[in-house]
Amino acid sequence: MLKSKSQPLSLEEVKKMQNVGRLAGQTLLFIAPYVQAGISTNELDRLVYQYTIDNGAQAAPLGYHGYPKSVCTSINDIVCHGLPDETILKDGDIINVDVTCVKDGFFGDTSKTFMVGNVSENAKKLVEAAEAAMFKGIEQVAPFNTTGDIGFAIDRLVTRSGYSTVKEIGGHGIGRKFHDDPFVPSFGKKGKGDVLKPWHCITVEPMVNEGVEEVDEFPISGSTIRYYRTKDRKLSAQFEHTILVTDKGFEILTRV
Ligand code: MF3
Ligand code: CO
Ligand code: CO
To answer: 20 to 30 A Cα–Cα from 176, which one of 18, 38, 93, 138?
Structure first.
């Protein structure tokens, strides 16, 4: 079992996490009306960059392990880390927009899958299952519960809905670092994995595939970050919140 080296957050640090978490959530609210057929993902990137700066923060993806953009935009069969480019959104697409802000030395990470115009019934159900799965996972967050409890709850809902969870990528500790221990899987066994500690933060971010769980990895030029697509090229959807483990349960820092 991984032992987190990080200390519990002080009250002041909790306030900083609440502050940056709220800004990340507000960034998703800000971008929502722009996520429409006809816009390019580069334009979404520019808007997120500017909004973040205007609010006294920085977009954490920019320059992170050489990642060249301020946000991840993952369309249809892209599972995560989709790179903004000149691709134009079209009616019927689903797109995950993943925003991470850093302010006062602390990170807030949140994402949501948007439906562009009229999407298929299949796509809508997948997106709804991904969001429900994230909340099922979040409900398991409490001091001395485990990452396995979260993963188990997520995977059960997803499997019962007829979908699959991505295994090799998942949630993570977050705070003074963008990505920290523990790994927060979207599958697992009750009581297994890492124990959740009060006054630490994690993300819960299940990636839910319409078809097979397997993914293909692709390089991003100039970066050690890779992006992922479903192996069968069917759809994938994801939602993410940053969660504070409190003394009694949890607080969703990126919900606004
Ligand atoms: N926001 C992603 C996550 O949820 C990480 C993106 S790393 C980047 O962990 F470099 F691709 F931005
Ligand atoms: Co994350
Ligand atoms: Co994220």
So the answer is: 138
Domain spans of the chain, in order of start:
11-252
- The domain 11-252 is placed in CATH, from the list 3.40.50.2300, 3.10.50.40, 3.90.230.10, 3.30.70.940, at 3.90.230.10
Average model confidence (pLDDT) across the chain: 98
If you take atom 12 of ligand 1, which residue's CA is the nearest one? Answer: 61
Q: What is the mean pLDDT of residues 56-79?
A: 99
The Cα 14–Cα 40 span in angstroms is: 36
Cis peptide before 61 (omega within 30 of 0): no
- The response to whether residue 136 sits with its C-beta less than 6 Å from ligand 1 reads no
Q: Is 234 helix (H, G, I), strand (E, B) or coil?
A: coil
Q: Name the residue at shortest CA distance from atom 11 of ligand 1.
A: 81
CA of 50 to the centre of ligand 3 (A): 18
3-state secondary structure of 56: coil
C-alpha 33 chain-centroid distance: 20
Residue 62 CA to residue 72 CA, distance in Å, equals 10
